[in-house]
Amino acid sequence: MAEFTTAQLFSLVSAFFWPLVRVLGLFSSGPFFSHRSIPIRIRVGLGVAITFLIAPTLAPFPITDPISWMGLLVLTQQFLIGVAIGFIMRLIFSGVELSGELIGMTMGFGFASFFNPQSGGQSSAINQLLSLLTMLIFIATDLHLQLLESLVESFNSLPIGMNTLGKNSFQQLAFLGKNIFSISIQLSLPIIAALLMTNMALGVLTKAAPQLNLFGIGFPITMLVGFLMIDLLLPYWSMPLYVNLQQGINMIRTLLQATI
């Protein structure tokens, strides 16, 4: 009969359990992997499969009792690292979704909201259009594989149980929040400017002909101008979206390198 000591048992459990926690941390916050349309069983199963591939390649790390206070600390540490990696990419998607909200509100879609399965809340149709477009670019350009690659590289720069995110890492994550506003302005400014000029023209028209019903002709015109601008800009949005997504991958690698 095969016998295992307590140290050997902890070693076997830790070799698989700690990497799995970091992988599941990414799957709980990263785009595409955390999408609500993907059942939890599939996400956990995919995390287990990836961990089976990663675990044999990892360097040895200190053996820690998973049910001790030190084990709880390591558990929290690994989960936060995975969440931080996915959170950086989530900022890029949040910037795109904010631009969709700005465009939708300016076009008059503030009253037409739908349930967004990704955020779990209400969002406009333009928001969901840009979110789906960004997700398609994210998958078509294999950036989801680069995100997994960054996760694997994190085990070299942040070994399990030895290092954690640097003291300034969380401050850097907060500073990265500015990307939400810069991306939203970059994508939505041309359409908002066109709609602003349209509203100014409608205001002048109302003054010139007060008998016109502004609410009767204003909404269709602003919606028509908004859709025309989206149709014109849609072919040119793919490159800015890809560049911003690639910058998100670079931010993850920079953050991990800064903790070495």
SSE layout and pairings?
Elements: H1 6-29, H2 40-54, H3 69-107, E1 113-116, E2 121-124, H4 125-140, H5 143-157, H6 169-175, H7 178-208, H8 214-258
Antiparallel strand pairs: 1-2
Quick description:
The protein is mostly helical.
Textual characterization of the structure:
There is one protein chain. This protein is mostly helical and 260 residues long. The chain has one domain. The chain is 74% helix and 3% strand. It has eight helices and two strands, in the order αααββααααα. The protein has helices at residues 6-29, 40-54, 69-107, 125-140, 143-157, 169-175, 178-208, 214-258; strands at 113-116, 121-124. It has a two-stranded antiparallel sheet with strand order 1-2. A hairpin with a 4-residue loop joins strand 1 and strand 2. Helix 1 runs parallel beside helix 3, helix 3 runs parallel beside helix 7 and helix 7 runs antiparallel to helix 8 (214-258). The longest helix is centred in the C-terminal third of the chain and has 45 residues, at 214-258. The two termini are 44 Å apart. 28% of the residues are buried.
